[in-house]
Amino acid sequence: MQLSTKHLLGIKELSPEDISTILTTATQFKEVLQRPIKKVPSLRDVTIVNLFYENSTRTRISFELAEKRLSADTINFTASGSSVSKGETLLDTVNNILSMKVDMVVMRHSASGAPHFLAQHLPNTAIVNAGDGINEHPTQALLDAFSIQEKTGSLQGKKVLLVGDIMHSRVALSNIYLLKKMGAEVKVAGPPTLIPKYIEKALGVGVEYNLKRALQWCDVANVLRIQLERQNQVLFSSLREYNLAYGVTKKLLDEVNKEIVIMHPGPINRGVEIDSDVANGKDSIILQQVENGVAVRMAVLYLLAGRNN
Ligand code: CP
Hints:
By secondary structure, the protein is α/β, with parallel strands linked by helices. 41% of the residues lie in helices and 15% in strands. It is built from twelve helices and nine strands. The longest helix has 23 residues, at 286-308. The chain starts with 15 loop residues before the first helix and ends with a helix. The protein folds into two domains: 11-136 and 292-308, Rossmann fold (3-Layer(aba) Sandwich); 138-289, Aspartate/ornithine carbamoyltransferase (Rossmann fold, 3-Layer(aba) Sandwich). Phosphoric acid mono(formamide)ester is lined by residues 56-59, 131, 137, 140, 265-267. Phosphoric acid mono(formamide)ester (CP) binds at residues 56-59, 131, 137, 140, 265-267.
């Protein structure tokens, strides 16, 4: 099995066959991760740098663990504490790291398009996007899809709701691309100021401004964080008012009275976009998403290493 692409820059560039290949390979790696010995030699002698120019907990640890489970050699770079503060450019930094015989780059950056820029300048090195600005977070969408498939059996025909700050969410965009390619129905819900105009026409998703009606429609609700760090103007009155109108609460779910799979990519702002009793409740698969992230990232790295050999 091979991917049609040598980088993972976004879901936009993947075919449905690529997505199926990654999800099938991830199922095999998830089985490996249940064994007493969780390590396989697949990427022995492959060196991977994790280049994080923006904060991360889940994605960074998950990639590093995936690399270690595949027996790759790993280097972790964070912009803080590096020579970036002395004015070194992204391309100089990466070229210096690559001159030490590094094979693959996993990169998170606050600038949308940063991994695409690297891929243009370094065509012979596999680049994996671990989240770029407000553009895409492809491995998050892949692990979300894997988790929906694992919980409900398939993506085809599933009604998936993305709730919250759609405007600034790279998770939302990658999820929309992936779910649409794999035959799911997608709606977004949130305040009008946090939903891009023309999203229905541009991306083929439904829009619902009333959260209760949106929840009545869906099988799966993926609840997103308000990305305050990416907002340079006031887009809603207060976090308390946001919670009252768009917070996924136990009271609201009791009123809807329907079985809905609850997801969240993390980090969670408890009491804002989701209440603790929902995040920790019986229908939540939030920690399964994190667990599945390792198998999904193993699959991506394994398939891209094969593509580049
Ligand atoms: N879901 C996600 O990307 O989390 P981190 O920012 O902690 O990596």
